[in-house]
Amino acid sequence: MSQELLQASVNLRSPVALDWLDAISESNGILSAILAVIYPKLYDAGWQTINHLGDAPKFGDQDILDQWVSVFSGIGISTVVGIAGKVLEHAVLSFKEDRVYYAYFMRDNVHE
Question: For residue range 47-69, what is the model confidence (pLDDT) as tens digits?
Fold first, then answer.
């Protein structure tokens, strides 16, 4: 099986995205710490993977890894729910204020 070069999402390859990652770094660290408490094995797997990516000379964009303060290998806009190995049906009521919800996840192809 051939190994493809892992690269950061195109959405994260701009100075604005790096600023955004810096702005949410404290939250990322807190969420990683929560994962360490509620699911230590998954935290360890994520930590090992992120460290491995940082040591790998073939990773496409080291600037993003320098800003990535999370054991999760991906982030999307949604809601944060601390449930491991379960399915949760979820809905959000409409709000008048502006809100952003993030969903953190671990991609299997990054951990392989």
Answer: 998 888 777 665 555 567 778 88
Asked if 36 and 72 count as a contact pair (C-beta separation under 8 A), the reply is no
Burial class of residue 67, CB neighbours in 10 A (0-12, 13-18, 19+):
buried
Structure tokens at 101: 């919800």
User: What is the structure's pLDDT at 2?
Assistant: 46
Residue 74 three-state SS: strand
* Residue extents of the structural domains in the chain: 12-111
Could you give the CA distance from residue 112 to residue 108 in angstroms, rounded to a whole number?
6
The pTM for the full model equals 0.65
Which of 31, 67, 48, 57 has the alpha carbon at shortest distance from 111? Answer: 48
Say if residues 20 and 68 touch (Cβ distance below 8 Å).
Answer: no
Alpha carbon of 37 to those of 7, 29, 42, 105: distances in Å?
29, 13, 10, 16
Q: At what angle do helices 40-55 and 25-38 cross, to 10 degrees?
A: 130
